[in-house]
């Protein structure tokens, strides 16, 4: 891992502790993607047939690796010297508690009020990333009053927070402080928090939006095996949890790196080929800066997520409880909007579809995008923003 801050390859992503579904297969200690298997088989057959001398093959591999390494370093250097810096001013805060606050992106608007709940492990700014790539500012320009919950940094009090403390405590108090019932919209892990809060306080929530929100953490036998493997990391992480009261940012980013270890160098090689003055280059830098600016996860939440969600699949089994009550999507009587990105490497589409299938009044939107791209990518307006806007207008 290259560490934190500008110039460091991002190994984090939006939302939750990484989904085992995206984890690579391991063979002989090296991750091998399924897409590479045919090429591996072809090379192996050619070597076995004696069509290539092993020494020549080894030299060719080393030359190829050195070219790839130079391209990676060029991409990292280009990222380090890029002049982009996020300069969006924060809108006014209308509520705060601890380091958490709610930012009002359309003060005084008479439009529908939508409160957005992001994940606990990344900054809320992914929904207000940069000029032209801000879901909040797009919706505000379309007559919606978007409010963004910024969880902030877990301080001394928050380090003891469980999921119940966040949901039945802080999030519920935020809902009570709003001027009236809101549309509650959760992104990734934030969707699980929003769902539980909506079930607890239907008097304060008129509809629920769920963006790339997981539910079934074991959608296949292979996923179940990998999820349990992630859960098995808990004993090794326990010294960190006890020493700091959190799962530190570096540990979270290391977990996320396992989703696609080859993808990180590939994206920096591609960045090296971009025009530094292009919009695509600025967007890349904005997202990388956000990915590298992670937030620690309170130790009790880390234990619940890894041990409960991933290890025991408690949501799907009807065993996830908040303040003693089972979180049951089937009991939600209000309209719901479920956005499921097809190319999601963080939340497998089948995991999110399992939640949509259990909601009595769900509208399902299948987005041709990835987990982060749906929220802040170049195609985000078509992939998510406008479909979400139309649903909000239909309420």
Automatic annotation (TrEMBL):
GO terms for molecular function: hydrolase activity. It holds the Pfam family Abhydrolase_1. Residues 180-224 form the AB hydrolase-1 domain. The keyword Hydrolase applies. It comes from the Bacteria. The keyword Aminoacyl-tRNA synthetase does not apply. The chain crosses the membrane at residues 178-199. Keywords: Hydrolase, Membrane, Transmembrane, Transmembrane helix. This is Alpha/beta fold hydrolase. It comes from Falsiroseomonas algicola.
């Amino acid at each position: 891992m290259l560490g934190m801050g500008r110039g460091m390859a991002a190994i984090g992503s939006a939302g939750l502790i990484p989904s085992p579904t995206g984890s690579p297969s391991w063979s002989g200690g090296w991750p091998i993607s399924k897409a590479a298997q045919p090429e591996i088989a072809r090379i192996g057959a050619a070597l076995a047939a004696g069509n290539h001398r092993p020494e020549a093959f080894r030299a060719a591999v080393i030359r190829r690796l050195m070219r790839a390494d130079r391209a990676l370093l060029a991409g990292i250097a280009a990222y380090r010297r890029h002049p982009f810096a996020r300069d969006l001013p924060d809108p006014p805060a209308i509520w705060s508690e601890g380091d958490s606050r709610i930012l009002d992106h359309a003060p005084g608007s008479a439009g529908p009020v939508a409160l957005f709940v992001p994940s606990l492990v990344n900054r809320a700014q992914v929904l207000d990333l940069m000029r032209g790539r801000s879901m909040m500012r797009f919706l505000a320009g379309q007559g919606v009053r978007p409010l963004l919950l910024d969880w902030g940094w877990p301080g001394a009090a928050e380090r003891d927070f469980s999921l119940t403390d966040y949901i039945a405590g802080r999030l519920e108090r935020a809902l009570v402080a709003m001027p009236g019932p809101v549309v509650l919209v959760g992104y990734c892990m934030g969707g699980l928090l929003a769902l539980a809060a909506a079930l607890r306080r239907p008097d304060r929530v008129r509809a629920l939006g769920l963006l790339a929100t997981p539910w079934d953490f074991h959608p296949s036998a292979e996923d179940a095996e990998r999820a349990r493997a992630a859960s098995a990391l808990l004993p090794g992480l326990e010294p960190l949890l006890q020493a700091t009261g959190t799962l530190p940012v570096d540990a979270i980013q290391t977990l996320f790196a396992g989703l696609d270890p080859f993808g990180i160098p590939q994206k920096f090689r591609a960045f090296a080929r971009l025009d530094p003055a292009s919009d695509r280059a600025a967007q890349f830098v904005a997202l990388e800066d956000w990915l590298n600016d992670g937030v620690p996860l309170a130790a009790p939440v880390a234990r619940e997520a890894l041990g409960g969600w991933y290890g025991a699949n408690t949501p799907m089994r009807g065993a996830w409880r908040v303040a003693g009550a089972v979180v049951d999507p089937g009991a939600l009587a209000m309209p719901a909007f479920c956005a499921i990105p097809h190319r999601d490497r963080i939340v497998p589409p089948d995991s999110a579809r399992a939640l949509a299938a259990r909601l009595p009044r769900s509208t399902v939107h299948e987005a041709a995008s990835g987990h982060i791209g749906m929220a802040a990518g170049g195609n985000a307006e078509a992939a998510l923003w406008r479909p979400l806007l139309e649903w909000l207008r239909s309420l």
